[in-house]
Amino acid sequence: MAFVITNRCVKCGACESNCPNKAIVEESKQFAIDYFKCVQCGACISICPNRAIDEVGN
Fold it and tell me: Measured between alpha carbons, how far is 7 from 4 in angstroms, rounded to an integer?
């Protein structure tokens, strides 16, 4: 499984500070996931107040 940060992201920073592998990176309009660092733990999904992170694929 993989995760993607959608356009519902308002750059609150909750996911970035909660990621154990520092796989959330700030871009100009929203945060993004560095797939080389992400270990698919799902910590970002549960902490996002805007439900801006979706699981994709299997």
Answer: 10
